[in-house]
């Protein structure tokens, strides 16, 4: 069963909010303010399904991102507010913005000017890391957080629903290796059903496949997390904290740094 859940962010700069993974986070939404554009259509996406459409506002310009971010950073600094991280997130996949690399460069300069101690994070679904320019930009940020929800092809296809049929687990794991020791891999763990099909990426088979993939990728660390907000597919179940801890111990025993959230 699907809900009528829709986009979360109605501006280019949003927050700051308190992120359970990143701390006090100021968000950057490079997608439309009235629609969603993504190369995945995940069952659990808090911004809803892609079927809601791309809206009419279009993508924010490079100039708008810089102007709005500078105004917010200046106001926060002047009022003495704390900031841990500037996070690229929002209504879809940030790396789809055609001037993503230029925007990253500008945001780094503004961070250095106003909050030099803050980190820059990008939350990406890994679909654009095959593009050399995007990959280079991701290497320049402090927290290059890339998705791998399942290392089993059939599960990934049901859970993440990539738009591009050429996107496969084998291809993305191989491409993720280019960030050797720099990337943070983020894995959503859940179980449930969709269109009568059972989904569970916490089974022994799934975890063994994930651990093997993590070893190939050699990430800086792995973040595992589960549902925290409502999802467009309503028949999904959160993995509780105690079980997350056990899964983290299993991943850690394989020599991989892991944080459960």
Q: What are the defining features of this structure?
A:
261 residues; alpha/beta; 8-stranded mixed beta sheet; 3-stranded antiparallel beta sheet; 21% strand; globular
Task: Walk me through the structure.
The chain contains seven helices and eleven strands. It is an alpha/beta fold and 261 residues long. Helix 1 (62-78) links the parallel strand 2 (23-29) and strand 3. Helix 1 (62-78) runs parallel beside helix 2. It is globular, with a radius of gyration of 18 Å. The model has no long low-confidence stretch (mean pLDDT 96).
| Estimated helix fraction | 25-40%
Q: Distance between termini?
A: 26 Å
What proportion of the residues form beta strands (DSSP E)? 15-25%
> Largest sheet, order of strands side by side?
1-2-3-4-5-6-9-11
What radius of gyration results from the CA coordinates? 18 Å
- Count the DSSP helices: 7
User: Low-confidence parts lasting 5 or more residues at pLDDT below 50?
Assistant: none
Could you give a short account of the major beta sheet?
8 strands, mixed
In short:
The protein is an alpha/beta fold. It is 32% helix and 21% strand.
Chain-wise SSE layout:
Elements: E1 13-19, E2 23-29, H1 62-78, E3 85-89, H2 100-114, E4 119-124, H3 132-139, E5 143-147, H4 153-160, H5 169-176, E6 183-188, E7 190-194, E8 197-200, H6 204-217, E9 221-225, E10 236-238, H7 241-253, E11 258-260
Parallel strand pairs: 2-3, 3-4, 4-5, 5-6, 6-9, 9-11
Antiparallel strand pairs: 1-2, 7-8, 7-10
Helix pairs in contact: 1-2, 2-3
